[in-house]
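RECORD TYPE: inverse folding
INPUT: structure tokens
STRUCTURE:
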């Protein structure tokens, strides 16, 4: 049963630890989203576990004969509203659209990814470093957790923290940011081309 005052881990590990296809896929995700060099797999498993919970809830609602009234109607509305606020669904989506969400959608809503997409960092790994060292804030709240899931309403208030030297537009890092991003994109394209040649 376990100790009642300690919650059980919600992250499910793979049922078979040595499947090569899954390992290769997770290594690719780890590199693309700049996850931890050591322990990055667990970050992916955490997102997959959360995704599994969303899908199970959606399938339970889809399987109901009538979910338009009462408790099930309310549960469906809450699920869709929650996923829309998290940026995983578009407004007006149906419960069936929940099954279209994949692990990449989950990873792209992490604070680390959103910081990179908003152009505040030259790469995913640089975004992680900025967050961990306290250079990023949402509103007045300084954020130090790269895996935090950013809500859609929080995206506009995301920026450099007021104590960060990068808040100054004249800082050399800010001036070189676009150049660094361009170099990162070129390196990624070269890596993709070389991997495609190796496969062929």
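DESIGNED SEQUENCE:
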């Amino acid at each position: 049963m376990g100790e009642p005052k300690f919650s059980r881990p919600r992250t499910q590990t793979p049922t078979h630890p040595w499947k090569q296809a899954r390992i290769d896929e997770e290594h690719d995700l780890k590199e693309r989203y700049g996850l931890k060099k050591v322990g990055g797999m667990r970050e992916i498993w955490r997102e997959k576990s959360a995704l599994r919970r969303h899908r199970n809830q959606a399938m339970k609602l889809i399987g109901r004969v009538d979910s338009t009234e009462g408790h099930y109607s309310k549960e469906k509305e809450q699920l869709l509203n929650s996923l829309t606020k998290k940026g995983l669904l578009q407004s007006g989506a149906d419960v069936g659209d929940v099954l279209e969400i994949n692990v990449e959608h989950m990873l792209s809503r992490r604070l680390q990814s959103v910081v990179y997409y908003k152009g505040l960092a030259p790469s995913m790994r640089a975004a992680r470093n900025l967050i961990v060292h306290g250079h990023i804030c949402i509103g007045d709240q300084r954020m130090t957790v790269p895996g935090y899931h950013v809500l859609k309403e929080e995206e506009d208030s995301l920026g450099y923290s007021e104590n960060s030297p990068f808040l100054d537009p004249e800082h050399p890092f800010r001036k070189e940011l676009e150049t660094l991003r361009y170099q990162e994109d070129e390196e990624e394209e070269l890596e993709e081309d070389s991997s495609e040649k190796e496969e062929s």
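NOTES: The chain has a mean pLDDT of 87.
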